[in-house]
Amino acid sequence: MDTQLIEEVIHDEQIEIDVRNAQRDLIILKYMAWRLRSILYQLDQAEKQGSEQPLPRQVQERCGRNHRIVIYRQQELLQLRSFAFVGFISKRKGVLQPEVVEAIKQTDQKLVAELVHAPSILSYSSLELPGGDWCNLVVLADSGAKMHIKNSETHIHAAHHLAHDYYKWIRLHNGTMPEGLDPVEMRLLSTKYYTFHPDQQRPSLRERTYGTRQVKEIKTRASQ
Protein backbone atom coordinates (compact mmCIF):
# COMPACT_ATOMS: atom_id res chain seq x y z
CA MET A 1 0.00 0.00 0.00
CA ASP A 2 1.38 3.43 -1.00
CA THR A 3 1.48 5.37 2.27
CA GLN A 4 2.49 8.57 0.48
CA LEU A 5 -0.62 8.33 -1.71
CA ILE A 6 -2.78 7.79 1.38
CA GLU A 7 -1.26 10.84 3.03
CA GLU A 8 -1.92 12.92 -0.09
CA VAL A 9 -5.55 11.79 -0.18
CA ILE A 10 -6.00 12.63 3.51
CA HIS A 11 -4.35 16.01 2.93
CA ASP A 12 -6.65 16.77 -0.02
CA GLU A 13 -9.71 15.71 1.97
CA GLN A 14 -8.66 18.00 4.82
CA ILE A 15 -8.39 20.93 2.41
CA GLU A 16 -11.89 20.18 1.08
CA ILE A 17 -13.28 20.03 4.62
CA ASP A 18 -11.57 23.31 5.51
CA VAL A 19 -12.98 25.00 2.41
CA ARG A 20 -16.53 23.81 3.15
CA ASN A 21 -16.28 24.96 6.76
CA ALA A 22 -14.92 28.34 5.70
CA GLN A 23 -17.73 28.78 3.18
CA ARG A 24 -20.36 27.97 5.82
CA ASP A 25 -18.71 30.32 8.29
CA LEU A 26 -18.67 33.11 5.71
CA ILE A 27 -22.42 32.74 5.21
CA ILE A 28 -22.92 33.31 8.95
CA LEU A 29 -20.54 36.28 8.97
CA LYS A 30 -22.32 37.81 5.97
CA TYR A 31 -25.63 37.51 7.79
CA MET A 32 -24.14 39.24 10.83
CA ALA A 33 -22.84 42.07 8.62
CA TRP A 34 -26.29 42.41 7.04
CA ARG A 35 -27.90 42.62 10.47
CA LEU A 36 -25.37 45.25 11.56
CA ARG A 37 -26.06 47.33 8.46
CA SER A 38 -29.82 47.05 9.00
CA ILE A 39 -29.50 48.32 12.55
CA LEU A 40 -27.31 51.22 11.44
CA TYR A 41 -29.94 52.33 8.94
CA GLN A 42 -32.59 52.15 11.67
CA LEU A 43 -30.74 54.59 13.94
CA ASP A 44 -32.39 57.96 14.26
CA GLN A 45 -30.56 61.05 13.07
CA ALA A 46 -29.36 61.99 16.55
CA GLU A 47 -27.82 58.53 17.04
CA LYS A 48 -26.16 58.59 13.62
CA GLN A 49 -24.58 61.97 14.26
CA GLY A 50 -24.02 61.55 17.99
CA SER A 51 -20.79 60.80 19.78
CA GLU A 52 -22.23 58.38 22.32
CA GLN A 53 -20.11 55.25 22.43
CA PRO A 54 -20.76 52.46 22.37
CA LEU A 55 -24.29 51.88 21.05
CA PRO A 56 -25.35 48.41 22.22
CA ARG A 57 -28.18 46.55 20.51
CA GLN A 58 -29.81 43.21 21.28
CA VAL A 59 -31.63 41.27 18.55
CA GLN A 60 -33.74 38.17 19.05
CA GLU A 61 -33.06 35.78 16.19
CA ARG A 62 -34.99 32.65 15.21
CA CYS A 63 -35.57 30.04 17.92
CA GLY A 64 -34.86 32.68 20.57
CA ARG A 65 -31.15 32.89 19.82
CA ASN A 66 -29.40 36.07 20.95
CA HIS A 67 -27.54 38.46 18.68
CA ARG A 68 -25.59 41.13 20.53
CA ILE A 69 -24.22 44.04 18.53
CA VAL A 70 -22.02 46.81 19.89
CA ILE A 71 -21.49 49.79 17.58
CA TYR A 72 -18.40 51.85 18.38
CA ARG A 73 -18.04 54.14 15.34
CA GLN A 74 -21.43 54.50 13.67
CA GLN A 75 -20.46 57.32 11.31
CA GLU A 76 -17.49 55.39 9.93
CA LEU A 77 -19.55 52.24 9.49
CA LEU A 78 -22.01 54.13 7.28
CA GLN A 79 -19.27 55.10 4.85
CA LEU A 80 -18.87 53.27 1.56
CA ARG A 81 -15.22 52.33 1.98
CA SER A 82 -13.09 49.27 2.54
CA PHE A 83 -13.10 47.60 5.95
CA ALA A 84 -11.30 44.61 7.39
CA PHE A 85 -12.98 42.01 9.57
CA VAL A 86 -12.19 39.19 11.96
CA GLY A 87 -14.56 36.26 12.36
CA PHE A 88 -14.36 33.91 15.33
CA ILE A 89 -16.32 30.63 15.29
CA SER A 90 -15.75 27.98 17.93
CA LYS A 91 -16.98 24.74 19.45
CA ARG A 92 -17.14 24.32 23.20
CA LYS A 93 -16.00 21.21 25.02
CA GLY A 94 -18.73 18.77 25.96
CA VAL A 95 -18.25 19.11 29.73
CA LEU A 96 -17.40 22.50 31.19
CA GLN A 97 -16.72 23.69 34.71
CA PRO A 98 -19.18 26.44 35.75
CA GLU A 99 -16.34 28.71 36.84
CA VAL A 100 -14.75 28.47 33.38
CA VAL A 101 -18.04 29.36 31.69
CA GLU A 102 -18.45 32.36 33.98
CA ALA A 103 -14.85 33.45 33.40
CA ILE A 104 -15.35 33.36 29.62
CA LYS A 105 -18.54 35.40 29.96
CA GLN A 106 -16.85 38.01 32.14
CA THR A 107 -13.87 38.18 29.80
CA ASP A 108 -16.10 38.83 26.79
CA GLN A 109 -17.90 41.64 28.61
CA LYS A 110 -14.61 43.17 29.68
CA LEU A 111 -13.20 43.03 26.15
CA VAL A 112 -16.31 44.71 24.73
CA ALA A 113 -15.84 47.56 27.21
CA GLU A 114 -12.11 47.89 26.47
CA LEU A 115 -12.63 48.18 22.72
CA VAL A 116 -14.32 51.55 23.19
CA HIS A 117 -10.83 53.02 23.50
CA ALA A 118 -9.52 51.40 20.30
CA PRO A 119 -10.19 53.98 17.55
CA SER A 120 -9.97 51.50 14.68
CA ILE A 121 -12.50 49.01 16.09
CA LEU A 122 -15.84 49.87 14.49
CA SER A 123 -18.19 47.18 15.82
CA TYR A 124 -18.31 43.88 17.73
CA SER A 125 -21.12 41.36 17.18
CA SER A 126 -21.85 38.04 18.89
CA LEU A 127 -24.41 35.63 17.42
CA GLU A 128 -25.62 32.60 19.34
CA LEU A 129 -25.54 29.46 17.21
CA PRO A 130 -27.60 26.27 17.55
CA GLY A 131 -26.21 24.20 20.39
CA GLY A 132 -25.13 27.19 22.46
CA ASP A 133 -21.91 28.04 20.61
CA TRP A 134 -21.17 31.58 19.43
CA CYS A 135 -19.84 33.39 16.38
CA ASN A 136 -18.14 36.78 16.72
CA LEU A 137 -17.66 39.39 14.01
CA VAL A 138 -15.37 42.37 14.55
CA VAL A 139 -15.40 45.08 11.88
CA LEU A 140 -12.16 47.06 11.67
CA ALA A 141 -11.18 50.31 9.98
CA ASP A 142 -8.11 48.53 8.60
CA SER A 143 -6.21 45.28 9.04
CA GLY A 144 -3.71 46.88 11.42
CA ALA A 145 -6.48 47.31 13.98
CA LYS A 146 -6.25 43.59 14.77
CA MET A 147 -3.27 44.38 16.96
CA HIS A 148 -5.54 46.31 19.36
CA ILE A 149 -7.32 43.05 20.11
CA LYS A 150 -4.30 40.77 20.00
CA ASN A 151 -2.33 42.95 22.43
CA SER A 152 -5.22 43.43 24.83
CA GLU A 153 -4.42 42.03 28.28
CA THR A 154 -7.95 40.64 28.45
CA HIS A 155 -7.49 38.80 25.16
CA ILE A 156 -4.08 37.49 26.20
CA HIS A 157 -5.49 36.20 29.49
CA ALA A 158 -8.33 34.40 27.70
CA ALA A 159 -6.01 32.86 25.11
CA HIS A 160 -3.44 31.59 27.61
CA HIS A 161 -5.54 30.74 30.68
CA LEU A 162 -9.13 30.00 29.61
CA ALA A 163 -9.23 28.76 26.02
CA HIS A 164 -7.79 25.29 26.69
CA ASP A 165 -10.46 24.49 29.29
CA TYR A 166 -13.36 25.92 27.26
CA TYR A 167 -12.89 25.28 23.55
CA LYS A 168 -12.71 22.11 21.49
CA TRP A 169 -11.68 24.05 18.40
CA ILE A 170 -11.58 27.59 17.01
CA ARG A 171 -11.70 28.90 13.45
CA LEU A 172 -10.30 32.43 13.25
CA HIS A 173 -10.99 34.14 9.93
CA ASN A 174 -9.43 37.31 8.54
CA GLY A 175 -11.12 39.03 5.65
CA THR A 176 -11.94 42.17 3.75
CA MET A 177 -15.12 44.16 3.08
CA PRO A 178 -14.20 46.15 -0.04
CA GLU A 179 -17.65 47.77 -0.34
CA GLY A 180 -18.21 48.62 3.31
CA LEU A 181 -20.94 46.64 5.05
CA ASP A 182 -22.28 45.17 1.82
CA PRO A 183 -22.27 41.48 2.83
CA VAL A 184 -22.24 40.27 -0.77
CA GLU A 185 -18.70 41.56 -1.21
CA MET A 186 -17.22 40.07 1.98
CA ARG A 187 -14.21 37.91 1.22
CA LEU A 188 -12.02 35.64 3.33
CA LEU A 189 -8.27 36.15 3.12
CA SER A 190 -6.98 33.59 5.62
CA THR A 191 -8.05 31.22 8.38
CA LYS A 192 -6.30 29.85 11.44
CA TYR A 193 -7.58 26.51 12.73
CA TYR A 194 -6.89 25.89 16.42
CA THR A 195 -7.53 22.42 17.85
CA PHE A 196 -7.27 21.84 21.60
CA HIS A 197 -5.99 18.52 22.93
CA PRO A 198 -6.40 17.13 26.48
CA ASP A 199 -2.72 16.21 26.75
CA GLN A 200 -1.36 19.51 25.39
CA GLN A 201 -1.63 22.93 26.97
CA ARG A 202 -1.15 24.68 23.64
CA PRO A 203 -3.46 23.99 20.71
CA SER A 204 -2.28 22.72 17.35
CA LEU A 205 -2.57 25.27 14.56
CA ARG A 206 -3.15 25.11 10.82
CA GLU A 207 -3.20 28.23 8.67
CA ARG A 208 -4.65 28.65 5.20
CA THR A 209 -4.78 31.54 2.77
CA TYR A 210 -7.43 31.86 0.08
CA GLY A 211 -6.81 32.80 -3.54
CA THR A 212 -9.33 33.26 -6.29
CA ARG A 213 -9.19 29.61 -7.35
CA GLN A 214 -7.31 27.71 -4.72
CA VAL A 215 -6.59 27.29 -1.06
CA LYS A 216 -2.98 27.24 0.01
CA GLU A 217 -1.93 25.65 3.28
CA ILE A 218 0.79 27.70 4.95
CA LYS A 219 1.89 25.60 7.88
CA THR A 220 0.92 23.09 10.52
CA ARG A 221 2.53 23.54 13.90
CA ALA A 222 2.04 23.72 17.63
CA SER A 223 0.62 27.09 18.64
CA GLN A 224 2.94 29.38 20.54
Any overview of this molecule?
- With 224 residues, the chain is an alpha+beta fold.
- It has a single domain, classed as Alpha-Beta Plaits (2-Layer Sandwich).
- The protein has six helices and nine strands.
- Strands 1-2-4-5-3-6-7-8-9 form a nine-stranded antiparallel sheet.
- A hairpin with an 8-residue loop joins strand 7 and strand 8.
- The two termini are 36 Å apart.
Please supply descriptive tags for the structure shown above.
224 residues, disordered N terminus, 32% strand, alpha+beta, 9 strands, Alpha-Beta Plaits, nine-stranded antiparallel beta sheet, globular
Mean pLDDT score: 84
Helix content: 25-40%
CATH architecture: 2-Layer Sandwich
Counted up, domains total: 1
Helix and strand content put the structural class at: alpha+beta
How many DSSP-defined strands?
A: 9
Main sheet summary:
9 strands, antiparallel
> Roughly how many Å apart are the termini?
36 Å
Shape: globular
| CATH fold-level topology | Alpha-Beta Plaits
Instruction: Please mark out the parts with pLDDT under 50 across 5 or more consecutive residues, or reply none.
Output: 1-12
Strand order within the widest beta sheet: 1-2-4-5-3-6-7-8-9
- Discrete helix count: 6
> What are the secondary-structure elements, in order, as H or E?
HHEEHEHEEHHEEEE
Rg to the nearest angstrom? Answer: 18 Å
Per DSSP, what share of the residues sits in E-state strands of 2 or more residues? 25-35%
CATH class, please?
A: Alpha Beta
